Each structure stands twice: as structure tokens, then as C-alpha cells.
């Protein structure tokens, strides 16, 4: 199975080791991985800030870059960027710079191929247990875009259930945004500060040592706030957890494990 | 009476919508699914009764089930328990339907009883409603899903009868328990269309008046009755 | 008061809201309480997603044929003997209402909760009439009125920012002598308000839904104050936004169910009332019935990408799930309509000059879109507002336009991005400091953190540390190239 990595600008700029872990996990599970070289960013920073005109060419570049390599699937380490790429066909409806619909056509193809990392492993590869071990306590921060725009609220929890030694603790107020919101975190940093402070409090209430998420943006925000407050936390992307201390003989398919319960509300 | 500034106002809206007016006849609203009609549709009469009881009591409402024969005694007991008169009663044919005409005379002999009268003025009827300790009404329906009674205004049973007295009791025949508001509204619409119902007010009442406006702590009896009772009469 | 509830600039409002510890706690508590009630009530109903589609279809249909429904409704009010006044502006509406009060020689006006009359700033105008008193009878609005017309901070729970001690102090001014028990205070308000109700000659109510085919209006309350306001006074004035229409009672009933579950987690509100001009034979209810239908710039949204905001049924669920509202409360928004719905609606009603900051006061988490019972894509409408402000109106609103254009360039040109990847570590060098790293497993080159970055980065580092970006040879792309060649660079 040929898989292209949609790196995201956040991972490229700030979280190189997440990409490495992701590649190693995917290769271990039998994928042939490649990284389209001209890709940059999904366009959210400008689009969501209202610079829609400036965003068409960002999206076009991304479409060109990801279409340049033949692949069966595109896998992304960020729920938010995955969601926006899935929405490309809707966003490009108003694109005046694509009169022939060339980009629209490609966008529809990409949109069908793209998966967020955790949902790709569970829902496409059908893998439930990646063979990882991590003996510690952790809590999971659900990103808003992954949950509400991409509609994925289950696979990270299901995969984490199979990490040996890991004790997961429920995060109170899990439904509330951490205050990242892309450019929101800098433009409205006063509000963002209140939100991330509240998130830090909730995480502390769990007593967990590790904060796991599937969105580097949220991790950078929450981790940065922890650091500013001088409070201890270890931040991990799910890929880093699933690539931790792996025993390949333990890898199990979804069909080999008990059916998981749907993610509890909310 | 009068309608002012209409044409200019509506033409402006039509312009904004970029569409000529008077298109509705060809495009009436079509319900996209029949959930309102389907919800609780399959419940038996017995199931609807217990659902109505459960949901009413949760409000909280004092829920009574009785027979025609026992109804007079139940009402008398209720009045005594609620501190006696003045008791406000509607002027209604339905006292006959529930065999209550004798009771009307008996209760008037023991308690101060007043009536909402079709021939009385606004001031007179409001006065008796305001001074009444208890009022009793006849309901059109009891909704199982929400524990709601529905009442429609008439010259003999005005609006304020349901709101001004301290204690409020409503009588409803068991055959008038329906799944939910959908069925009650369908009936009101049918009766209005047929010219059989001339009410200026239809009230769906779900338990006692309440408010959570102070620190979201629910308190009952802010404006309307402090407590509410439903009496379901087997018919 | 009108649409704007504050004269402070946006950032000062935020700072003020952030410092109000009580309001902060009470809003968070209210959100959590409402969360459970709302979700339970919706789950109990079942098929919630299909109910939402039903609600959306009713609201969209009405908006698409709004002139026809308004015509039908006004004809039917007229047939029942009532009056309808179409007001383009708040001034027209206020003038008409004040004229009615004078004409009817009204002395005691009682009001039940109505957002639109607050939008009109009607209370102050009535209050200014000689020998006319006006009283808000919704418990929360009564509290605000007695607190020298304090501003509401929620569309369903206007006094959510007040605690019981504050209410006690306010009530003391009008003769209350008891403690801070909400029940006792509510009893006091009942007695006080009851006397005023009985003396009232004019009742002013809002309108949840106006029934086109009967000319009746539909009111949902828990307290029953609207019912007293439409029973006792001889004159009733209904004030409604022009978009409140429904075809018939059937659709009103559907929306009443969805509204109650979404707003307060109840199956129905305690009182669901359909009422209009009284018949000749009835003795109570309004014998003079007026409906004022207000545009006040709602029509700006009609026929545009913002039309969907007029689907709103004012349940307040989007406020109750919003993480920004949770932090800054209603007063932070500075609009009568706060929260996500307010951030979309306020710029339409009041313009971008005054409310242009509000669409940015959202992290676009989409909790609002997810909860809206009539499927308004709230977070997308916020982006559309931002687009209007930046691309069409070229407004800055404190946003660093130049830097955003650089971001735009950096994210569309592979060459520039690769250059940025190569030099980012050095670019931020001057702001990089060694600082104890307590949040571990950040890449944080050499354990360095950026603590007071330049430009937009400064917005970030005012609040959080930023790990120093990796050096070029540690980049993922560099690693991957090596990896493909068969050797890992570590």
C-alpha cells in the first residue's frame, strides 16, 4: 500500500520527530511511505483569518504537491489539517482562480484519499494494537477540528486502549477548545490565555504525567502554557506513543480484538 | 383593523431575496420527515398513561387517577388539603360530562366558591381569579411525553384562571391522553378550521411556574401557581 | 440600551470580563449544568440529527418565502381585529409603541422577556414618558432593572453573571428583608410583581414564533410572566423580529420542542402559549392587540451568505457550549446578542465598525455549529465575516495585515517555505533563551524556549513559551531523505 505523508507546516516547523515516528509506524504496518516534496500548508492560517483570496494559491500549491506522487492514501499527523483538506471541494466552490475546475477535480480525488493518522491505522489498515508499550499515566486532548469537522471521535481512544502499560485518565471538560485556533492564539491571545489556562487546570486534575493528542497545534499551545507556568507535563503525539517500545509480535488486527465501545459522550 | 407600512417593507424583502412575491401557493412547506408523528406512536393506551404519570410526577405535579364516581370526593379532599377556598371554577358544560353538578352545589355549601363568568367584566373575573386560593380547569389533552395539559380559552374559562390562583388543578378524561404535542396541535388546527373552536388562547401547561434565574437554582411559583395537580378520570 | 451593551473597547471588555471571578465561575457552572440537561433531553427524544434537519427545513423555507408569510400573518392578525406595524428601523418601532402607550393612556406597562425590545432600547424610552412606569417581569430582567438597568449577559439567562448575594442587595433596595435563599427571593419578587401586574394597563411581550395561518403568536416561558402580560392588561403590544414566522401551529410545535430541549433541557417549557386578540365573548386577554414587526438590518442578511443566521430560534445553546463565552461572558462581547450567534448577528445588525472584532473572538472550534438545533453553520459564518472584513473592506482590526500576507506567501511558495525551514532556527535566534523546560518532549532545540517573540509571535509568547525550532539537519524532510537512502541520521 502506497502512502503519502501530508506533513503539515506545523510538523515541518516544530515537530520533526512526530513525522519520524509516523513513518516508522506506517512502515512497520506494511506501508510504502513517501513525502511529496513541494507541499507546505493546507491554507487554514490565511483562510480562517479571512484572507480567502490569498488562500486559493496556497490550496492550489498543496493540491499540486500532493497530486505529484501516485499513492493509495494520504496520511496526516493533524486532525485539523486533515479536516480542511477533506473540505477542499466545498471551499473551492467559490474559487474564482480555477475557472476550468482543474483544481476542484483534483481536490475531490485528494479529499477521498486523505486520512488522519489514527483513523488510517484503525479504519483503513484495520490495526488495533501497534505493539507499543508505555508504562505511565496519560490523558488525551481531543482537538475540536478532528472531532467536529473531521467527525473522528473514537480511533485515538481505541488505539490507546491497546498500548501496553498505559493508564488513560479521562480529561474533564474534554469538549472545550484549548484556545489554539490557529491565528486566534496570537490575535486574541488574551482570550486564548484564559482558555488554555483552564485546559491546563483540567489536565492537572487528572494527575496524568503525559498529555497525548492528534493535533500538533494543540500540543504546542498547551505544552507552551505548561512551560510558561513552570508546570511539569510530557507532551506526546499519538504517533510517538504508538512507536514507543514496540514488540512486533504483539501487533493485532481490529478483527482479533473485542469490538470497542463507541467513544463516550461528548 | 390596521396594517401599516406593509407593501414597502415586503417589497424590500422580496428585492433582497431576488424573487417576486406570492410564490408560496406553489411552494407550500413540506415536512422533510415524519418524526413528530412517529415519536411514541406505537405506545398503547396503558403505556401512554404510565408515561404521562411518570413525566408529570417528575415536574413535580400531583397526579391523580380516579373514576367518575370518586371524582367529587377527590376534589373535595384536594380543596381541603390545599387550605380551602376561595375556589374558582369555570362556567362549563363539562361539569355535566363529569357528573359534577351535585358536587358543585355541595362544595359551594362548604367553601367559598366563585365562578369565571361569561357575563362578567374583565375586572370582575380578574378579581375572583386573583383572590382565589384554588382554581380548577377542564383540560383538552394530557401529553404523555412531557406531562403537559392543554387548555383553550372560552368565555367561561378565561386565560387568567390558569395563572393567578395559588393552587391549580386540571381535570382530563383518560381518553384524552395523547403521545405528544403533535396530536394536540393537530386537533386544535382541525377544530379551528372547522369553526368549532373559537379560542383566543391555547395554553400548554407543564407543571408549576418556575425559574432558574438566580444561580440556576430551580425555584417554583414565580408568577403562576405554586403547585399543580392533574386528575385523570377514567371514561 | 440597544444592541450595544458597552462603550469600552473590545480588549478592555475582555480584560474586565477576565477579572470578574464570580461571573467566570457561574458561567462555567451554568454551561456544565446545561450540558448534561441538554444532551439528556436530546438523547431522550432520539433521532436528534433528523430533528435538526426538520427544524432547519422549516426555518429555511420560511426565510425563502418571508414576504409571503409576513403578508399572510398580518392579514390574519387584521382579520382577528388586531393591528400590525412594519418597522424598518428601531426609531420607527419605538415611535409607534410610544404612540400606542400615549393613545391608550397607559400608565403601568408590564413587559415579559423580549430580546427585540432590548434591541430597541424601549424600556428607557417608556421610562422617560411622564407618568408612565415600565416593569420587566421576567425574574432575571427584573433583577437587572432593579440594579439600575444592568446589561443582560445571556439570551436565555440574562442575569447569569449575578450571584445570590448580589440579588439580595438589589432586592433590599425595594424592601426585601430576607436572606439570600433564591426561593425566598423569588417569592418576594412574585408578590412585588403580582401587584404591578394587577395594575397594568399595557402588556408588552416578545414572540417566539408568529403563526402565519392564524395570526396567533407563540410564546414559550417557564415563569408564566408572558401569560400574565397577555391576560391582564387591556392592551398587548407584541414586538418581534421579522424572521420569527412559521407557517402554522404544526411547525411552531416542532420548534417549541426543539427550543425547550436546546435552551433549558426540558421537553417543553412550562408554558407554551398560542394567543392573540381576544374574542368578543371572552373577558380577559388583549382587546387592543398590536404586533410590531422589526427589520433593523435583518434584511441585510437576506439573500446573502449570511441568510442562515436568521434561522436562529434563540435557544442559546451555542452560548452554552462556547469556550470563549465561558471565559468572557456576555459582557465581553459588548452586544445584546453575545456568544457565537451574537458574533455572527451583531455585525449584520450593528455594522462592522462597531462589532467587527466579534467574528475574530472565536477559535473556530465549531462547538456552536455542532449544537445548533437548526443547523446554522456558525463557525463558517464567522469565517465569512472575516473574509468580508479583510478581503472586501480591508479592515485591519488590529490584525497584522502585513504579517498575514507574509504567511500567505510562505505557505504558497515551496521555495520560500524551504528557505524558511532552512533558516527558521536562526531567524528566531535573538529571542531564544534558555529557560527551565517543564513541558518535556517538545523538540526545544538545546532546551531553549522563545519567551518574548517579535510581531505575531509576540501574541503567542505573551501567553506561552515557544520551543526553539529544530536546526535544519534535524528537520523531518532531511531525516526522511536519509531514511529513504537506507540510513537513519541519528
Describe this protein's structure.
The complex is a heterotrimer of chains A (266), B (235) and C (490). Chain A has 266 residues and is α/β, with parallel strands linked by helices. Chain A has two domains: 2-123, Rossmann fold, CATH 3.40.50; 128-256, Rossmann fold. Chain A is 47% helix and 16% strand. Chain A contains 13 helices and ten strands. Chain A has helices at 9-14, 16-28, 44-47, 52-67, 79-91, 102-113, 117-124, 144-149, 155-161, 184-187, 189-206, 216-229, 238-242; strands spanning 2-5, 32-34, 73-76, 114-116, 127-129, 133-141, 164-169, 210-213, 233-237, 252-253. In chain A, α12 links the parallel β8 (210-213) and β9 (233-237). The mean pLDDT of chain A is 95. By secondary structure, chain B is α/β, with parallel strands linked by helices. The model of chain B has no long low-confidence stretch (mean pLDDT 96). Chain C has a six-stranded parallel beta sheet, sandwiched between helices. Chain C has a four-stranded mixed beta sheet with strand order 8-5-6-9, sandwiched between helices. In chain C, strands 11-13-14 form a three-stranded antiparallel beta sheet, with no helix packed on it. Helices cover 50% and strands 11% of the residues of chain C. Chain C folds into three domains: 10-300, Rossmann fold (3-Layer(aba) Sandwich), CATH 3.40.50.10420; 315-392, no CATH class; 414-486, no CATH class. Chains in contact: A-C, B-C. Chains B and C meet through β1, α1, α7, α8 and β10 of B and α2, α3, α4, β1 and α8 of C.
> How many strands, what sense, and barrel or not for the largest sheet of chain B?
6 strands, parallel
Q: Please work out how many helical segments of chain A DSSP would assign.
A: 13
CATH class of the largest domain in chain A: Alpha Beta
Determine the CATH topology of chain B.
Answer: Rossmann fold
User: What is the terminal-to-terminal distance of chain A?
Assistant: 34 Å
Looking at CATH, which topology of the largest domain in chain A would you report? Rossmann fold
Mean pLDDT across residues of chain B: 96
**Low-confidence parts of chain A lasting 5 or more residues at pLDDT below 50?**
none
Q: Strands of the largest sheet of chain A, in order across it?
A: 2-1-3-4
Largest interface: B-C, 87 and 112 residues
Would you list the SSEs of chain B in sequence order as H and E?
EHHHEHEHHEHEEEEEHEEEE
How far apart, in Å, are the first and last alpha carbons of chain B? 44 Å
Residues in helices of chain B, as a percent range? 25-40%
Architecture per CATH nomenclature, i.e. the level-2 architecture of chain B: 3-Layer(aba) Sandwich
Can you summarize the main beta sheet of chain A? 4 strands, parallel
Number of helices of chain B: 8
CATH architecture of the largest domain in chain A: 3-Layer(aba) Sandwich
Amino acid at each position: 500500500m502506497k502512502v503519502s505523508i501530508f506533513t503539515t507546516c506545523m510538523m515541518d516547523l516544530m515537530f520533526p520527530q512526530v513525522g519520524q515516528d509516523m513513518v516508522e509506524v506506517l512502515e512497520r504496518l506494511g506501508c510504502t511511505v513517501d513525502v511529496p516534496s513541494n507541499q507546505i500548508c493546507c491554507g487554514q492560517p490565511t483562510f480562517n483569518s479571512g484572507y480567502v483570496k490569498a488562500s486559493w494559491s496556497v490550496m492550489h500549491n498543496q493540491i499540486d504537491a500532493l497530486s505529484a506522487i501516485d499513492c493509495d492514501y494520504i496520511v496526516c499527523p493533524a486532525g485539523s489539517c486533515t479536516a480542511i483538506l477533506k473540505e477542499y471541494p466545498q471551499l473551492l466552490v467559490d474559487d474564482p482562480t480555477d475557472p476550468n475546475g482543474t483544481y476542484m477535480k483534483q481536490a475531490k480525488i485528494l479529499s477521498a484519499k486523505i486520512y488522519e493518522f489514527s483513523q488510517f491505522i484503525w479504519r483503513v489498515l484495520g490495526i488495533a494494537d501497534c505493539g507499543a508499550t508505555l508504562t505511565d499515566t496519560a490523558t488525551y486532548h481531543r482537538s475540536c477540528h478532528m472531532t467536529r469537522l473531521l467527525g473522528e471521535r473514537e480511533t485515538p481512544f481505541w488505539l490507546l486502549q491497546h498500548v501496553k502499560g498505559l493508564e488513560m485518565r479521562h480529561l474533564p471538560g474534554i469538549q472545550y477548545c484549548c484556545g489554539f485556533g490557529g491565528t486566534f492564539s496570537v490575535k486574541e491571545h488574551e482570550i486564548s490565555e484564559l482558555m488554555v489556562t483552564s485546559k491546563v487546570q483540567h489536565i492537572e486534575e487528572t494527575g496524568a504525567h503525559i498529555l497525548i493528542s492528534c493535533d500538533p497545534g494543540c500540543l504546542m499551545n498547551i505544552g507552551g502554557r505548561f512551560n510558561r507556568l513552570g508546570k511539569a507535563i510530557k507532551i506526546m503525539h499519538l504517533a510517538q506513543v504508538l512507536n514507543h517500545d514496540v514488540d512486533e509480535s504483539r501487533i493485532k488486527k481490529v478483527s482479533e480484538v473485542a469490538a470497542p465501545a463507541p467513544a463516550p459522550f461528548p | 383593523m390596521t396594517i401599516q407600512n406593509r407593501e414597502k417593507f415586503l417589497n424590500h424583502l422580496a428585492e433582497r431575496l431576488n424573487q417576486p412575491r406570492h410564490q408560496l401557493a406553489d411552494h407550500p412547506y413540506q415536512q422533510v420527515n415524519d418524526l413528530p408523528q412517529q415519536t411514541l406512536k406505537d405506545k398503547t393506551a396503558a403505556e401512554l398513561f404510565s408515561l404521562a404519570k411518570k413525566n408529570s410526577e417528575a415536574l413535580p405535579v400531583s397526579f391523580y387517577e380516579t373514576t367518575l364516581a370518586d371524582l367529587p370526593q377527590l376534589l373535595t379532599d384536594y380543596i381541603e388539603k390545599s387550605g380551602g377556598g376561595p375556589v374558582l371554577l369555570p362556567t362549563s358544560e363539562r361539569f355535566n360530562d363529569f357528573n359534577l353538578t351535585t358536587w358543585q352545589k355541595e362544595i359551594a355549601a362548604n367553601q367559598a366558591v366563585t365562578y369565571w363568568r361569561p357575563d362578567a367584566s374583565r375586572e370582575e373575573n380578574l378579581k375572583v381569579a386573583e383572590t382565589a386560593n384554588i382554581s380548577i380547569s377542564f383540560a383538552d389533552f394530557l401529553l404523555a411525553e412531557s406531562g403537559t395539559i392543554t387548555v383553550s380559552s372560552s368565555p367561561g374559562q378565561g386565560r387568567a384562571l390558569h395563572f393567578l390562583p395559588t393552587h391549580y388543578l386540571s381535570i382530563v378524561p383518560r381518553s384524552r391522553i395523547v403521545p405528544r404535542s403533535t396530536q394536540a396541535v393537530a386537533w386544535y388546527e382541525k377544530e379551528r378550521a372547522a369553526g368549532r373552536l373559537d379560542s383566543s388562547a391555547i395554553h400548554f401547561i407543564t407543571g408549576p411556574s418556575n425559574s432558574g434565574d438566580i444561580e440556576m437554582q430551580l425555584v417554583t411559583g414565580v408568577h403562576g401557581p405554586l403547585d399543580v395537580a392533574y386528575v385523570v378520570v377514567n371514561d | 440600551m440597544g444592541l450595544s451593551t458597552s462603550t469600552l473597547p473590545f480588549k478592555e471588555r475582555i480584560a474586565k470580563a477576565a477579572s470578574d471571578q464570580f461571573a467566570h465561575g457561574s458561567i462555567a457552572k451554568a454551561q456544565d449544568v446545561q450540558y448534561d440537561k441538554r444532551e439528556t433531553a436530546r438523547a431522550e427524544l432520539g433521532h436528534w440529527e433528523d430533528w435538526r434537519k426538520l427544524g432547519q427545513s422549516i426555518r429555511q423555507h420560511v426565510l425563502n418565502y418571508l414576504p409571503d408569510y409576513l403578508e399572510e400573518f398580518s392579514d390574519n392578525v387584521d382579520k382577528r381585529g388586531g393591528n400590525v406595524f412594519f418597522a424598518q428601523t428601531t426609531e420607527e418601532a419605538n415611535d409607534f409603541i410610544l404612540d400606542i402607550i400615549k393613545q391608550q393612556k397607559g400608565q403601568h406597562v408590564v413587559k415579559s422577556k423580549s430580546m427585540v425590545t432590548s434591541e430597541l432600547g424601549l424600556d428607557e424610552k417608556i421610562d422617560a414618558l411622564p407618568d408612565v412606569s415600565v416593569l420587566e417581569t421576567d425574574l432575571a430582567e427584573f433583577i437587572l432593572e432593579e440594579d439600575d438597568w444592568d446589561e443582560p449577559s445571556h439570551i436565555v439567562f440574562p442575569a447569569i453573571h449575578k450571584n445570590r448575594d448580589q440579588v439580595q442587595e438589589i432586592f433590599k433596595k425595594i424592601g426585601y428583608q430576607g436572606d439570600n435563599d433564591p426561593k425566598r427571593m423569588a417569592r418576594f419578587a412574585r408578590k412585588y410583581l403580582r401587584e404591578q401586574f394587577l395594575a397594568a394597563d399595557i402588556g408588552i411581550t416578545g414572540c417566539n414564533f408568529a403563526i402565519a395561518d392564524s395570526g396567533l403568536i407563540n410564546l414559550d416561558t417557564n415563569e408564566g410572566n408572558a401569560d400574565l402580560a397577555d391576560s391582564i392588561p387591556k392592551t398587548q403590544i407584541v414586538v418581534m423580529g421579522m424572521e420569527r414566522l412559521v407557517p402554522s401551529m404544526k411547525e411552531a410545535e416542532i420548534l417549541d420542542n426543539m427550543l425547550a430541549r436546546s435552551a433549558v433541557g426540558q421537553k417543553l417549557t412550562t408554558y407554551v402559549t398560542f394567543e392573540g386578540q381576544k374574542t368578543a365573548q371572552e373577558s380577559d386577554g388583549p382587546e387592543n392587540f398590536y404586533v410590531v414587526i422589526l427589520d433593523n438590518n435583518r434584511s441585510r442578511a437576506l439573500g446573502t451568505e449570511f441568510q442562515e443566521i436568521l434561522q436562529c430560534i434563540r435557544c442559546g445553546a451555542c452560548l452554552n457550549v462556547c469556550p470563549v463565552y465561558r471565559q468572557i461572558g456576555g459582557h465581553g462581547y459588548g452586544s445584546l446578542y453575545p456568544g457565537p450567534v451574537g458574533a455572527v448577528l451583531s455585525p449584520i445588525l450593528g455594522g462592522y465598525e462597531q462589532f467587527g472584532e466579534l467574528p475574530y473572538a472565536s477559535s473556530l472550534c465549531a462547538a456552536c455549529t455542532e449544537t445548533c438545533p437548526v443547523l446554522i453553520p456558525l463557525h463558517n459564518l464567522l469565517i465569512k465575516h472575516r473574509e468580508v472584513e479583510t478581503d472586501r473592506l480591508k479592515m485591519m482590526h488590529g490584525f497584522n495585515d502585513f504579517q498575514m500576507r507574509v504567511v500567505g506567501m510562505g505557505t504558497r511558495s515551496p521555495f520560500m517555505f524551504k528557505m524558511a525551514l532552512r533558516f527558521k532556527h536562526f531567524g528566531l535566534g535573538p529571542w531564544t533563551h534558555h529557560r527551565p523546560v517543564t513541558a518535556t518532549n517538545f523538540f526545544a532545540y538545546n532546551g531553549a524556549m522563545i519567551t518574548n517573540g517579535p510581531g505575531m509571535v509576540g501574541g503567542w509568547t505573551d501567553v506561552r513559551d515557544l520551543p526553539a525550532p529544530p536546526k535544519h539537519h534535524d528537520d523531518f524532510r532531511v531525516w526522511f531523505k536519509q531514511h529513504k537512502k537506507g540510513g537513519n541520521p541519528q
